[in-house]
Design a protein that fits this description.
alpha+beta; 2 domains; two-stranded antiparallel ribbon; 1 helix; Amphi-Trp domain-containing protein; Amphi-Trp_dom
């Protein structure tokens, strides 16, 4: 299935700024509200269903014999028109 990027933003931010963005997303999810992403003239609003798939990934990219780039990714996925059935899965802990 081809991928269409609807919105993209990448910039260095302080840990506090990143926490604020994540808190805003968490508050919207908690309230059952849509999430709107805006940067300049670019904007997209998405409405996650009640039970989207939640993916957490930690990665190291780069050469096997040297320093690389580390990342932590948080992703919500759902099919368009999905009302959000029971996603199941095992318990995730984040500390």
């Amino acid at each position: 299935m081809p991928e269409e990027v609807l919105f993209e933003s990448e910039s260095r931010r302080s840990r506090e700024e990143i926490a604020s963005y994540l808190r805003t997303v968490a508050d919207s999810l908690d309230a059952g509200n849509a999430i709107t992403l805006t940067r300049g003239e670019q904007s997209v609003t998405m409405e996650p269903p009640a039970r989207p798939t939640f993916e957490v990934k930690a990665e190291r990219e780069g050469p096997a014999d040297g320093p690389g780039e580390l990342s932590v990714e948080f992703e919500l996925e759902w099919d368009e028109g999905d009302a959000g059935g029971d996603g199941g899965g095992s318990d995730l802990e984040i500390e």
